[in-house]
Design goal:
A hairpin with a 4-residue loop joins strand 6 and strand 7. This protein is of the alpha/beta class. The protein folds into two domains: 243 residues, Type I PLP-dependent aspartate aminotransferase-like (Major domain) (Aspartate Aminotransferase, domain 2, 3-Layer(aba) Sandwich), CATH 3.40.640; 103 residues, Aspartate Aminotransferase, domain 1. It is built from ten helices and 13 strands. It is globular and about 60 Å long. The two termini are 31 Å apart. Helix 3 runs parallel beside helix 4 and helix 8 runs parallel beside helix 10.
Length: 362
């Protein structure tokens, strides 16, 4: 029996996407072999590859000004590859600090140019409980770009209104909330997302970048690290992780089948409202550190009165068929990751468990 998977990543995948893979695993479209065994230059795989790009373009409404790329190395590699391409040694880039991943991105940029912190909400306890407000940002109109992390998996905060950056290109790490709802892609010069939250399995990162911004990339770095190299070769410059892209195709097809991003947003908001209502019903038992206007619909974090109760909560939830609820090692407590594959009924089951647990131990 499958468990209810609240893991932060690699996260659960929609069951129809997995069932499709199971049906096609040994013999893809009567070809006599698995998609994993097909050449990335062959017509069978190329059709899957192009369908994945087409589906993502359709679902996000990606304009012709932008291009989709599939890369390896995950989002963490992009922390370095973005400044490697777009930050010259004498230039500056603005970084908005909202958690661990934005800190890591900032640190990598130091190797290539002069990044500056243009906004941060870290508190006296070295934690982040909200995202910066527009008036708190000190943006440089001469910056090479502004970098943000749209959702913060560890601290449970999320941007619900993207920053206004004027003429400065906006770069976003959307690893943990891409495809949770419709967005205006034209607002971004560059967005990237590790697939293992909402889009597919680990091992692949999705990139959507403006072609004019891409043209500004350095030509003094190895070709393998230039975005233009992948763009010119339809992300087939070298052998891509073909099975990961195949599974992304399956997930994207599922999203389209269920009604697209508007339907996902409806479900995701319902899940968030259910869970946060349960937390707020027991304010003396479930302590949520994130300010309400910055609460994440993807990763909800809270603590119980004692660490011992945190541990008991995770253990009893596992017995009830719910896994992945232990908080990150840096923040502790409980973390509920409600990505697209988590259903409304899954969250209702957790909420029922939370109410009973509070009555039993409160």
């Amino acid at each position: 029996m499958r468990v209810i998977n609240f893991n932060a990543g690699p996260a659960g995948l929609p069951l129809p996407a997995l069932e499709r893979a199971r049906e096609e695993l040994l013999d893809f479209q009567n070809s006599g072999m698995s998609i994993m065994e097909h050449s990335h230059r062959g017509k069978e795989y190329e059709a899957v590859h192009n369908e994945a790009i087409s589906l993502l373009t359709e679902l996000l409404g990606i304009p012709a000004t932008h291009q989709v790329l599939f890369l390896q190395g995950g989002a963490s590699q992009q922390f370095a590859q973005v400044p490697m391409n777009f930050l010259k040694p004498e230039a500056s880039a603005d970084y908005l600090m909202t958690g661990v991943w934005s800190e890591k991105a900032f640190d990598e940029a130091k190797y290539y140019g002069k990044p500056r912190i243009a906004g941060t909400t870290i508190n006296s306890e070295n934690r982040y409980t909200r995202v910066p407000r527009q008036a708190e940002m000190m943006l440089d109109p001469e910056a090479a770009y502004v970098h943000m992390t749209s959702n913060n998996t560890i601290y449970g905060t999320q941007w619900h209104a993207f920053p206004e950056t004027g003429n400065v290109p906006l770069v976003a790490d959307m690893s943990s909330d891409l495809l949770w709802k419709p967005i205006d892609v034209s607002r971004f010069a560059f967005l990237y997302a590790g697939a293992q939250k909402n889009v597919g399995p680990s091992g692949i990162v999705l990139i959507v970048l403006h072609k004019d911004f891409m043209a500004k990339g350095s030509t003094e770095i190895p070709k393998i690290f230039r975005y233009s190299t992948y763009a010119e070769n339809n992300s087939l410059y070298n052998t891509p992780p073909t099975f990961a892209i195949y599974l992304c195709r399956n997930v994207l097809a599922w999203i389209k089948d269920v009604g697209g991003l508007k339907q996902l947003e409806k479900w995701n908001r319902e899940k968030g409202e259910l869970l946060y209502a349960a937390i707020d019903r027991h304010p003396d038992f479930y302590r949520a550190p994130v300010e309400k206007e910055s609460r994440s619909y993807m990763n909800a974090v809270f603590r119980l009165p004692t660490e011992a109760l945190d541990t008991t909560f995770v253990a009893e939830a596992k017995k009830a068929g719910m896994v992945g609820l232990k908080g990150h090692r840096l923040s502790g407590g409980i973390r509920v990751s409600m990505y697209n594959a988590v259903t409304v009924d899954n969250v209702k089951a957790l909420v029922s468990f939370m109410d009973q647990f509070a009555q039993k131990h409160g």
